[in-house]
Design brief:
The complex is a heterodimer. Chain A is α/β, with parallel strands linked by helices. Chain A has ten helices and ten strands. Chain A is globular and about 55 Å long. Chain B is built from twelve helices and two strands. Chains A and B meet through helix 2 and helix 3 of A and helix 7 and helix 8 of B. Bound molecules: adenosine-5'-triphosphate (ATP) and magnesium ion (MG).
Chain lengths: 273, 297
């Protein structure tokens, strides 16, 4: 089915500014237009592997758009044009030999509103395996994958007796966890989350943040959030965007305690929405 | 406050409201009125009618001078078999087209196709009858080397063409009603478009698609002119799709003009009307309930 799979994470030498883990995502001069409207302007950023990076900024600044570039789902809309380069583990995802299917297997996405598929819990978790395996996975492999993934997101004990229930009948928080769980059997390297807690209550938010901490280290996690307290609590690095541009990218503490840019300072002090 | 102007406004408001209400209720009145009228014309014959024989006997010899026979078994089989063959052709095409229009083509193609399909729906059934007689019939004779071209397959092909439009438009609505977030979920997991369609969209919209099919069935069973012209109109239980058949609808259309008002034959034809009415009513009602089921979900 697929030809070129993307390179697996490997240490990259010579990152001049930041030491530490290698970069999971590197973009250079990324621009994106919705028809005539430019939503992303020359985004150049390096997001490191194995940590949680949060993406903050006022409504409409392009956070979702940026996230959706990383697995190229933006291209669903015919009127989108993209320019520049996005490398994931050193491989440009706009290269002609990149298979979209492999890319999306490697880059998992969690949406703002939990969107489990209208099939059973079990089928939701194995959906990825079913669509990607050329040969049929055996029942026991599937069962094992379901148990492993649901355990990892902390749903197994609650749901193990009703795996055949419709996924859309779960509570929102469980739905969102399930949406994370269904990425895991595909062994992604990146997990992109677009305001994953915005439709959850305090408890649900806490649970998802907890889960992100559990997953930290093994995945490159990028989370879009409107909630600055959440960005502070849950992320290692933070990116501030404004009107389609990247304003500041630094360690979360630094960004919140001593922002370098006055626009960042204005935003975190709540001077614009 | 109650100026003259005000009362006038109030009055006309009332009048308009009453008028609108009347328009709304009239549909119900018409349906019941028609049912009542059809039933009244046929009812007297019910007294000396053996229902079992009526429904299951296959001898339809209404014009016999000595012992006329009124068995509609063969006609029922005729109607059902033509419809079944028509659906076997129309369902894959209709639903396939619905999926293509809603998921696979660009906006321009979509608009064009929808217009063309609406045109297809607007062709009068007599014209389809012509097509059956003058195009389809020789075509069938040449390709399948059958002795006669006006047969079950011919009628079924026409009915398929006639019921595809409604299936496409209802089916497309059903697919459109599936939230986009399901599509995004599947695509973001790396599903191809076809995988998305058959693993997510079809299960999610199955009720709507079923309703589309049922409405197509209703359309096909009730169709008269085209089948009258294209099915060969011979009373018999068909054994192959190349046999000519006769349907309930065609029988009424062909014979009603020949009977004298109030005769047994006349009344039996009206009873066939009641039978048809009942069948289409059940089919449409089921379709409606199925559609309602979707809305509730
Ligand atoms: N599908 C689309 N078609 C056209 N314009 C779009 C589309 N999606 C987003 N936009 C525009 O692009 C800009 C960036 O939108 P985006 O959704 O990325 O912002 P965001 O930072 O995620 O905002 P929010 O915090 O409200 O989610 C907005 O001005 C928006 O109107
Ligand atoms: Mg957004």
């Amino acid at each position: 089915m697929s030809t070129a799979s993307l390179a697996k994470p490997q240490p990259q030498e010579g990152s001049p500014t930041m030491a530490g883990p290698p970069h999971g995502i590197t973009t250079r001069d990324l621009c994106l237009w919705y028809a005539k409207f430019q939503a992303l302007k020359n985004i150049t950023v390096r997001i490191r592997h194995g940590i949680i990076t949060s993406l903050i900024g006022p409504s409409g600044c392009g956070k979702t758009t940026f996230l959706r570039c990383l697995n190229r789902v933006n291209e669903r809309y015919g009127y989108v044009t993209t320019q520049g380069e996005i490398q994931i583990h050193g491989k440009n995802i706009y290269d002609a030999d990149v298979s979209l299917i492999e890319l999306r297997k490697q880059v998992g996405m969690v949406f703002q509103r939990p969107n489990p598929l209208p099939i059973s819990i079990y089928e939701n978790v194995v959906f990825g395996l079913r669509i990607h395996n050329e040969k049929k996975a055996s029942r026991s492999e599937l069962d094992a994958a379901v148990e492993k993934s649901l355990t990892e997101v902390g749903l197994w004990n609650d749901l193990k007796d009703r795996l055949q229930a419709r996924a859309t009948s779960l509570q929102l928080e469980q739905q969102q966890k399930l949406c994370i769980a269904r990425l895991l059997p595909l062994k992604p390297d990146l997990i992109l989350m677009d305001e994953p807690c915005s439709s959850l209550d305090v408890e649900g938010t806490r649970a998802i943040e907890e889960l992100m901490r559990e997953l930290r280290g093994r995945y490159t996690i990028v989370i879009v959030t409107h909630n600055m307290a959440q960005a502070r609590r849950a992320s290692d690095e933070c990116i501030f965007m404004l009107l389609g541009e990247l304003v500041e990218h630094s360690r979360t503490e630094d960004l919140f305690l001593s922002p370098k840019d006055s626009k960042t300072a204005d935003y975190i002090e709540g001077r614009y929405g | 406050m109650t100026s003259k102007r005000g009362t006038l406004d109030l009055l006309s408001e009332r009048a308009i409201e009453a008028l609108i209400r009347l328009c709304g209720i009239s549909a119900i009145l018409f349906v019941f009125g028609i049912f009542f009228f059809v039933f009244r014309e046929g009812a007297p014959f019910l007294r000396h009618l053996d229902l079992g024989e009526f429904l299951f006997s296959k001898s339809w010899i209404p014009t016999s001078q000595t012992v006329p026979k009124y068995g509609v078994g063969a006609l029922i089989v005729g109607s059902l078999s033509v419809t079944a063959v028509a659906m076997a052709i129309a369902v894959p095409f209709g639903l396939g087209a619905a999926v293509f229009i809603s998921e696979f083509c660009g906006r321009k193609t979509k608009e064009t196709l929808k217009i063309v399909i609406e045109l297809l729906a607007a062709i009068p059934s007599v014209v389809w009858g012509f097509v059956g007689l003058s195009v389809m019939s020789p075509l069938l004779i040449n390709t399948f080397h059958t002795p006669i071209g006006v047969n079950m397959l011919n009628g079924a092909l026409l009915l398929a063409l006639m019921s595809v439009p409604i299936m496409v438009s209802i089916g497309e609505d059903a697919l459109k009603a599936v939230p986009d977030s399901f599509r995004e979920a599947a695509i973001a997991l790396g599903a191809t478009r076809w995988q998305m369609v058959y693993r997510v969209l079809l299960p999610a919209s199955k009720n709507g698609l079923l309703a589309a099919v049922l409405l197509g069935v209703g359309r096909a069973i009730g169709e008269t002119m085209a089948v009258l012209m294209a099915t060969g109109h011979s009373v018999r239980i068909p054994t192959s799709i190349f046999d000519p058949v006769r349907t309930l609808t065609a029988t009424i259309a062909a014979e009603l003009g020949e009977t004298s008002k109030g005769s047994d034959h006349y009344q039996v034809l009206f009873l066939i009307g009641v039978l048809l009415f009942t069948i289409t009513f059940i089919v449409n009602l089921t379709a409606d309930l199925v559609v309602k089921g979707i809305r509730k979900q």
